[in-house]
Amino acid sequence: MRRVAIIGIGMTEFGELWDQSFRDMGIRAGFEALNDAKVTSEQIDALYVGNMSAGRFIEQEHVGALIADYAGFAKNNTPSTRVEAGGASGALAIRDAFLSIASGLHDIVVVGGAEKMTDVSDEEVNAIQSSAADQEWETIFGATYPSLFALMAARHMHEYGTTREMLSSIASKNHKHGSLNPKAQFRREIKPEDVIRSPMISNPLRMLDCAPISDGAAAVVLCPLDIASKFTDNPVEILTTAMASDSLALNQRKSITEMAATKVAVKKAFDRTGLKSSDIDVAEVHDNFTITELMAIEDLGFAPKGQGGKFTMDGNTLVGGQIPINTSGGLKARGDPIGATGVAQVIEIVQQLRGKADKRQVSDAKIGLTHNVGGTGSTVIVHLLGVPK
Amino acid sequence: MRRVAIIGIGMTEFGELWDQSFRDMGIRAGFEALNDAKVTSEQIDALYVGNMSAGRFIEQEHVGALIADYAGFAKNNTPSTRVEAGGASGALAIRDAFLSIASGLHDIVVVGGAEKMTDVSDEEVNAIQSSAADQEWETIFGATYPSLFALMAARHMHEYGTTREMLSSIASKNHKHGSLNPKAQFRREIKPEDVIRSPMISNPLRMLDCAPISDGAAAVVLCPLDIASKFTDNPVEILTTAMASDSLALNQRKSITEMAATKVAVKKAFDRTGLKSSDIDVAEVHDNFTITELMAIEDLGFAPKGQGGKFTMDGNTLVGGQIPINTSGGLKARGDPIGATGVAQVIEIVQQLRGKADKRQVSDAKIGLTHNVGGTGSTVIVHLLGVPK
Predict the structure, then answer these.
(1) Would you state the pLDDT for residue A209?
(2) Domain ranges in chain A?
């Protein structure tokens, strides 16, 4: 396999972008990434697009071709592949693009992730998000996406003594990081008490335990590592991509206080690279709910099982801590435009490894990890990124 | 790049499968392919799933994880990737799986394509099919999928003197082939006069110019060519995969009597392999409408521009003719469950190259081509397959 590097990044601000269409956002993020990589559209061999549900959010399937067209690639007939794995659609697009270069088929490839969520009603958003869970065995009986994660949170509290305060500390920490990120949807701090005072969504999860509904797009440019220096002085290598699945419905799992797919994916990633949890300098993990980050901290090996909450309360996951997590603000504060999220995670790690993360910079960051989840853990994708040696 | 072979095939019958769910169909096709390849689910490194719009047809996104789960792969945490490119989703899944093996990441991979179209109303099917065209610039103004292809047909008639009888001969020929295929949705012959007597859909296209609405699933098993002989005596090699895009909306094209993406994709495929049109022994081309096959015959180089109709009337595309096309019955007679179609095309070519196509066998077939279209030609994927040397 050829080694693959990231040579350009671009993203819109995340938020309720009433004045921008799906097309507008995709184009803006893509052009910013092309400019950052100093490549022109004629040099691009292929596009990969991560998107969960444009079919329902904007009644448009075939968004691979759409983005290729509106970003000006159709005139070169550049192939464009759309992938989907619920909330992990963005990481999946990066994985696919990585393989297309690793195989030798393509040289320079653009990856885009995008979702336009605010053009439909809140009820419809809820139905669409829930369609990443099991329609026949969960959502048809009234289970919603938050209620499935609430089951995991309640069980984690029961088994490990995880507390309301521990969950709150995760939201508070991510807002603190988000306040330092100019592209974050929420750029203000919240206190743990604010979380506890926010409206109940599904016991024990409250509104400020949940990532918001967001519009946004993010893009990266990839090429073989051996030609990366033609385009940039600070390439970041994708050391490996690892992916695992689990049952679609929660009731089929042996445990709902962990995500088995996270454990399998990260083991694959570490086995392939010879790295271990303690080698990671900075990580972006999936925190669509506070409980999701808490489980990720444990399943990725940053803290022992059952200790994710205490580990956070002790400040280990803040910038300056033992393993800074979600320095971007995470899904909670940066925002979660579903298909864009996995790409935005990678962009944050690239900024950290370039040493360009400004006030949220992790000192001497050399190795980063991203962790992107689809459904309730039915798909997990882990990427390891590093400063090339 | 490692060379890649197909070692197993499986598919459901195509049709209105009222008694089978999306899950049922996916499982049946997948198990048939695993049995054909004589592999077990434990040996599978990854799944790739082609599906256009389960989000709208059955209100379920994340169908990669769904298929992995219900086919029994979730217990091994096997990664599963869903891809989408409108009508070309099936071929895209094969392309992605091919690259994952060519890169060296995976060894044995299952590709599945599936669509469950008959659980929603005809009006909804029409809206969903049209969502592969341009929602903002075509369908919102009332254009439907058939009406866009009708524009192409009318213009082709105007520019090249293509006649009603020529279009009818394509439908009639595909039904003749379909009558020989036990898994085809329509296994009866129709006369060209039957097409002319069928109800008008969008002038000049009549009902029997259109592929039906179908349920169905199809699957293939891939592995590196160098280990294929462990599993089968008759592997079929995927010689190359080539893909191209074009504008999403028809009004942005220089010509609507050809598909530029077909021409670009097939040129790539021929350039990479050193093959040419006259080397192809059998082809499955996209015939969602009769005009689509007619243009494909020309754009793939089987007949000069403007001569596709006459070429068909002269019998060149029948089994026994110069270049048998759609020996399976094509989308028209075998059926068109969108995400399954590109996989079913490849299965037909595998059967031909294995010499197992029974009454529709093309004698001494060694090289085959598949041509799968998304939208009105905004995505085209061409695969070349061959008996390995």
Answers:
(1) 98
(2) 4-121+214-236, 129-210+239-386
Predicted pLDDT at A305: 98
pLDDT of residue B267: 98
Strand partners, A68: none
pLDDT for B94: 98
Residue B116 pairs in a beta bridge with B215
A251 touches chain B (CB under 8 A): no
* Contacting A residues, span 116-135, partner chain B, CB-CB under 8 Å: 127-128, 131-135
Min CA distance, B33 vs chain A (Å)?
A: 21
Q: Judge whether A4-121+214-236 and A129-210+239-386 match in fold.
A: yes
CATH 3.90.76.10 fits B142-211+237-386, yes or no: no
- CATH assignment of A4-121+214-236, among 3.40.47.10, 3.40.190.10, 3.20.20.390, 2.40.50.200: 3.40.47.10
Distance CA A191, CA A171 (A): 9
Q: What is the pLDDT of residues B261-304, one digit of tens each?
A: 999 999 999 999 999 999 999 999 999 999 999 999 999 999 99
Cβ proximity of A335 and A184 under 8 Å? yes
What residues of B are in contact with residue A132 (Cβ under 8 Å)? 61-62
Torsion (CA) A185, A189, A191, A194 in degrees, nearest 10:
-40
Residue B99 near chain A (CB below 8 Å) = yes
State the smallest CA–CA distance between residue B238 and chain A in angstroms.
14
Residues shown for chain A:
389
What integer is the mean pLDDT of B66-72?
A: 93
The question of ipTM being above 0.85 is answered as yes
Question: Confidence class of residue A309 from pLDDT cuts 50, 70 and 90?
Answer: very high
* Enclosing H/E stretch for A82: strand A80-84
Q: Which of residues 127-186 of A touch B (CB under 8 A)?
A: 127-128, 131-136
| DSSP helix/strand/coil, A59 | coil
% of chain A exceeding 90 in pLDDT: 99
Indicate the pLDDT class of residue B198, thresholds 50, 70 and 90: very high
Q: Are A71 and A26 in contact (CB under 8 A)?
A: yes
Architecture of the domain made up of A129-210+239-386: 3-Layer(aba) Sandwich (3.40)
* Residue pLDDT, tens place only, A240-259: 999 999 999 999 999 999 99
Burial of A320 (0-12, 13-18, 19+ CB in 10 A): exposed
Looking at the whole model, is its pTM more than 0.90?
yes
Pick from A82, A246, A375: which is nearest to B83 by CB? A82
